[in-house]
Amino acid sequence: ARSGDDPVAAVDSGCSLPGERRYGVTYQQRMYLCASAESRAAFAANPQRYTSRVQRAEQPTDVGTGDTVLR
After folding, report:
1. Closest CA to 3 of 43, 57, 63, 41
2. I need a surface site. Which of 35, 38, 45, 68 has the fewest CB within 10 A?
């Protein structure tokens, strides 16, 4: 998920939905924006499921290895 996108929609549906501040959730000192109250509830019930993909995308990659990185 890109910054500001709903992580639940990204993981569960593979789509990109803009999150809204009113449905924001703070987890491990970061704000995650969800698109609906239902999405926020799903995130709150299992935040690790939805944050692991974001954390992997933020990991540095080795430049010059020839590996393709999809984000």
Report:
1. 57
2. 68
Categorize the per-residue pLDDT at 71 as very low, low, confident or very high, splitting at 50, 70 and 90.
very low
The C-alpha angle with vertex 70 and arms to 41 and 20, in degrees rounded to 5, equals: 30
User: What tokens appear for 3 in the block?
Assistant: 């910054």
DSSP assignment of 5-41 equals B-HHHHHHT----B-EEEEEEEETTEEEEESSHHHHH
Q: What is the mean pLDDT of residues 41-63?
A: 78
For residue 3, give the nearest of 47, 44, 51 by alpha carbon. Answer: 51
Tokens 């803009």 found at: 18
Q: Residue 39 and residue 49: Cα distance in Å, rounded?
A: 13
pLDDT band at residue 28 using 50, 70 and 90 as cut-offs: very high
